[in-house]
Structures are given as structure tokens and as C-alpha cells.
Write a structure and sequence with these properties.
- About 25% of the residues lie in helices and about 25% in strands.
- With about 260 residues, it is of the alpha/beta class.
- The chain has a domain of about 180 residues: Vaccinia Virus protein VP39 (Rossmann fold, 3-Layer(aba) Sandwich).
- The strands form 2 sheets. Strands 3, 4, 5, 6, 7, 8, 9, 10 and 11 form a 9-stranded mixed beta sheet that branches. It has a two-stranded antiparallel ribbon with strand order 1-2.
- Helix 3 links the parallel strand 4 and strand 5.
- Helix 6 runs parallel beside helix 7.
- The mean pLDDT is about 90.
Length: about 260
């Protein structure tokens, strides 16, 4: 871990890519971003949009594992978008730089304003997102940069998933990670836009309650919702990751859908 006094440079995927992040403030990427990236299982040439990308951890993780993926990082915060640009320019990321770009944009924009901001209709095969997860009842952090990344707004999933549906080609895949209590809002927001919803609960250990959910869905699908087997993070009695989760975390494997749906060209 190195960098300037106000930042760190952190290695992910066992050094396959590096990320510039704010030091001691703001949202710092970790396991959530790596699990989100693992949901994109597509070896073909595809365009991937990372909504609310922050410093770009999830999008860069997709580009690191999938050499045919072009990734666009969409971020509203000018400061976090700058960190993402710094990440792309790192010498350690030279092998990814030509396939990853950053766009300053608010993903809740609609219609013409959304298109003008670079969130172009029907232009992505995959859309990934790790939306802000703190609701109004959560204690707010005094860190303004972190608060912006974590604070949930009214109709958040409706607005984010609406944008995902607009910018995705028919048959494209939505992937997201969220808290379990958001499951109803996510399903409602998918509505008629997305079907074939697959949900996986993530549990810290056997017998412990879920702390996150992984969700994938296909634009235009009419397939029914399914609950997948739970994903257990740690081996019993330890903080060590299970072998499968460790593979996801380090970019050695993808968490493919049960019902694969070909992405239209």
C-alpha cells in the first residue's frame, strides 16, 4: 500500500490491478466490489457499465478478469471520478487502460439529460451497481465523501434500475449487490424491465444471518424469480474465506447465472 499522503494505492486480484483510493476517508473498496464483479460471466466482446463506480474497483475487476470487456465507470462525485482516472493511469494498470474509461454522470438522470450525460440508450451488454445502502434511520458518518457514497435516497433502486434498463441492450444482464432488506424494492424496481431474477444470500458463516444479497436479472426476460443456494463467506470458526469466495475475491472465477441468457448483439 503506497501513495500520496491523501491517497493509497491498493492491489486487487493478487496484483492483477491496482486502485487509487482516498486515505482515511470516503468509501474504500473491498469484498462487495469483488463479489459484484464476479457476477459478470461473459468471455465475449462486451460493453459493461459500472453505475456509481466510485474509484472504479468493480469495473476494473471486471476488466482485469475479462480481457474482451470494455468498461465505462459512471460516477457523480467529481472527486471519486478523479480517483478512478488516477487508477486507470497507474503504470500497473497499463494493460487495462485502453478498455476502461470514466464518465462524470448522475445515474438518476432521465430521458435526454441521461443520454446527453453519456448514459446512452441500449449501448451496454452488462450493467453492474453497488448502490448506496444506508437508509434514513442509519447513523450518518461525519465523513462527507463517505456519506455521499453510502446515503440512500428515496426511490434509489427505482431510479438506478430504470437507468440500467434504458442503457442496456435487450437480453443484457443487470448485476448488483445490496443489503437483504432491500430485496423487495429491487424486485419491484425490476418490474417489467427485467426478468429471470436470481438472488443469492451471502452469509458470514453457517447459521448466521445474511448480510448481503447478490442479484442478477435479464432485460426483457419473462422467466420467474429464483433463490439460489446461499453463499457462505468464511470457514467455520475462522475469518478465512471459503475457497469459492476466495476465488471470486481474487478474480480466479466468475459466479455465473444458473439460467444463462445469450446477450443480443
Amino acid at each position: 500500500m503506497t501513495g500520496k499522503p491523501d491517497q493509497t494505492i491498493d492491489a486487487f486480484h493478487r496484483g492483477a490491478f491496482h486502485l487509487v483510493q482516498p486515505k482515511g476517508r470516503g468509501h474504500r473498496a473491498g469484498m462487495d466490489a469483488m463479489l459484484l464483479a464476479a457476477l459478470v460471466a461473459d468471455d465475449r466482446p462486451v460493453r459493461v457499465a459500472d453505475l456509481g463506480a466510485g474509484a472504479g474497483a468493480a469495473g476494473l475487476a471486471v476488466a482485469s478478469r475479462l480481457t474482451n470487456a470494455d468498461v465505462v465507470l459512471f460516477e457523480r462525485s467529481a472527486e471519486m471520478a478523479d480517483y478512478a482516472r488516477r487508477s486507470i493511469l497507474l503504470p500497473e494498470n497499463a494493460h487495462l487502460a485502453g478498455r476502461v474509461s470514466v464518465v462524470d454522470a448522475d445515474v438518476t438522470l432521465t430521458a435526454k439529460a441521461r443520454n446527453d450525460a453519456g448514459l446512452t440508450d441500449e449501448s451496454f451488454h452488462h450493467v453492474i451497481m453497488n448502490p448506496p445502502f444506508n437508509d434514513g434511520g442509519d447513523r450518518r458518518t461525519p465523513d462527507a465523501l463517505k456519506a455521499e457514497a453510502h446515503a440512500m435516497t428515496d426511490n434509489l433502486f427505482e431510479s438506478w434500475i430504470r437507468t440500467a434498463g434504458a442503457i442496456m441492450i435487450p437480453g443484457g444482464q443487470l448485476s448488483l449487490i445490496a443489503r437483504p432488506q432491500s430485496i423487495a424494492e429491487i424486485v419491484i424496481a425490476c418490474g417489467r424491465r427485467f426478468g429471470g431474477i436470481e438472488i443469492t444470500a451471502i452469509h458470514p458463516r453457517e447459521g448466521e444471518n445474511a448480510v448481503r444479497i447478490l442479484v442478477t436479472a435479464i432485460k426483457g426476460s419473462r422467466a420467474r424469480l429464483s433463490l439460489r443456494a446461499p453463499l457462505i463467506m468464511h470457514e467455520e470458526g475462522s475469518h478465512k474465506f471459503s475457497p469459492l469466495v476466495d476465488d471470486f475475491n481474487n478474480g480466479r472465477a466468475a459466479y455465473a447465472r444458473v439460467r444463462l441468457s445469450p446477450v443480443s448483439r
